[in-house]
Design the sequence.
């Protein structure tokens, strides 16, 4: 039984027969029309979907039109808030990578002068150690080494010995020394990253996973009533990653307001 103003009231009905021979009436699935929106509403603190509907349509009961126009959110309340669906940004580091990277830098310093700040390209007459060293990126990193050309085989061996892969490099001579910039990555940590993203995407309750490999960051949207944050952190820690979490608020985001559907 639907109320007089229900959007389901006038839907066509179907009848199916159960195994016991009982006939059951049901409404045919209501199809959501393609989104037609010329208005965007900026979410503010304290917004309510019924009041937003009143603002644009003069009718609090037409909140469902706004919900239909924003199908990427599973629950109407998620358009304005983050409960039960939350969105968080996870910034990852990898402890094993950082330990081996530090050891690699120490080994390279025994073969030449090392710096990973690209500003040193233009200040090669200054000691590299005086440059600020940035936090290494566990997916791909650049290492700048100034060394005698005779040591090149030893430099390449040091990279391999510490389980890194040389993606590319370029070099030039400065007086009697070779200055070379190596781009390295860690195949094992990259494999663990791919496994983690796959595992998260298949976890019940996780609605969306957006990863930025270059930055070591991914954004998760998940239903807190289905999966707990601790379970997600367990998957992350299982692959050896250390995580820093930043909640993402819906405030300031924009939602589509479709034209009013007049019956």
Sequence:
């Amino acid at each position: 039984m639907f109320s007089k103003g229900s959007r389901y009231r006038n839907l066509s009905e179907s009848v199916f027969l159960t195994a016991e021979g009982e006939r059951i009436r049901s409404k045919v699935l209501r199809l959501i029309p393609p989104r037609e929106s010329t208005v965007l509403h900026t979410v503010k603190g304290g917004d309510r979907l019924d009041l937003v509907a009143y603002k644009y349509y003069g009718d609090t009961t037409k909140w469902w039109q706004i919900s239909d126009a924003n199908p990427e959110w599973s629950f109407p309340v998620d358009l304005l808030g983050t409960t039960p669906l939350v969105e968080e940004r996870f910034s990852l580091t990898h402890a094993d990578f950082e330990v081996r990277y530090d050891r690699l830098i120490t080994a390279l310093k025994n073969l030449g002068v090392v710096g990973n700040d690209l500003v040193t390209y233009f200040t090669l007459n200054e000691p590299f150690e005086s440059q600020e060293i940035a936090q290494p990126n566990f997916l791909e990193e650049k290492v700048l080494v100034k060394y005698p050309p005779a040591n090149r085989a030893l430099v390449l061996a040091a990279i391999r010995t510490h389980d890194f892969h040389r993606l590319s490099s370029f070099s030039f001579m400065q007086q009697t020394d070779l200055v070379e910039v190596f781009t390295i990555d860690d195949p094992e940590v990259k494999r663990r990253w791919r496994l983690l993203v796959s595992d998260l995407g298949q976890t019940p309750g996780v609605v969306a996973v957006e990863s930025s490999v270059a930055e070591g960051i991914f954004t998760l949207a998940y239903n807190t009533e289905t999966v707990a944050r601790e379970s997600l952190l367990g998957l992350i820690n299982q692959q050896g990653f250390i995580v820093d979490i930043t909640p993402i608020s819906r405030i300031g985001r924009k939602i589509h307001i479709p034209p009013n559907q007049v019956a």
Summary: The longest strand covers residues 85-94.
